[in-house]
Amino acid sequence: MASSSEGGNLALLATIAISVVFFAAAAVALGYYLVFGENLAGPPQNIYVIRLSEYTIEASPEPIIVKVGQPVVFKIVNEGAVEHELMFVPNLQMMADMIMNAAIRLQEQNPELSEEEIIAMVDKRHEMVMEEMIEKALKGKVEGEEFMIELEPGESTVATFTFLEPGIYVIACMKLDGTFPEPHAKEGMFNQIIVVEG
Ligand SMILES: [Cu+2]
User: Fold this and answer.
1) Same domain, yes or no, for 156 and 61?
2) Are residues 37 and 52 in the same domain?
3) 20 lies in the same domain as 111
4) What domain count does the chain have?
5) ω before 153 within 30° of 0 (cis)?
6) How much distance in Å is there from the Cα of 81 to the middle of ligand 1?
7) For residue 154, how far is its CA from the centre of ligand 1 (angstroms)?
8) Ligand 1 centre from 100 Cα, in Å?
């Protein structure tokens, strides 16, 4: 009799102990979720992987949404077979047309040159002219070390930007390899960064 009653008490104690542990664990989990819940869904929202290839700029996670004043880190990878770039473009259509027209004009003026040589010439000019235009357009709106990042196939880099004004910022690739005389952007190689009030 005594031993069966002891056994019953032990079973009851064990049940109580398990319940206490279970509720404690549930309370800790709930507390953690309430405090860190936003981060349980995945990596923090201010780190993005940007993949460049023929002819897309893909971000993960997608879309890129950042808050004003919050630094955003881009890990940029060229997964394509040709050189690509990530550059901020204040006016996508205008810049793409500018590059295309420059390529057509240079080819007309220098019929003896190969397509490769024309592309090298356009690249050289576009680097100088675009860099100045972009820096002027982004002054006071975006902070970052570089707004035109060129990557060879297989190359990758990390860049940090801080947006100071809300809006939609366009990133694109204006290289011509494989799409001459159109830049890659005209084939769809662009994406956007949505900047919202913090
Ligand atoms: Cu490209």
Assistant:
1) yes
2) no
3) no
4) 2
5) no
6) 10
7) 13
8) 14
In this structure, the answer to whether residues 35 and 99 fall within a common structural domain is no
CA 67 to chain CA mean position, Å: 14
119 CA → ligand 1 middle, Å: 13
pLDDT truncated to tens, each residue of the chain (198 aa)? 445 556 666 666 666 565 655 556 655 555 555 555 544 544 446 999 999 999 999 999 999 999 999 999 999 999 999 999 999 999 999 999 999 999 999 999 999 999 999 999 999 988 888 888 999 999 999 999 999 999 999 999 999 999 999 999 999 999 999 999 999 999 999 999 999 998
Distance 116 CA to ligand 1 centre (A): 15
Distance CA 174, CA 103 (A): 11
- In a shared domain, residues 6 and 56: no
Task: Please tell me the distance from the alpha carbon of residue 136 to that of residue 69, in angstroms, as a whole number.
Answer: 20
Same domain, 167 and 97: yes
Residue range(s) defining the domain that contains residue 5: 1-42
Tell me which residue of 31, 39, 83, 77 sits closest to 58, measured CA to CA: 77
Measured in Å, residue 86 CA sits from the centre of ligand 1 at: 8
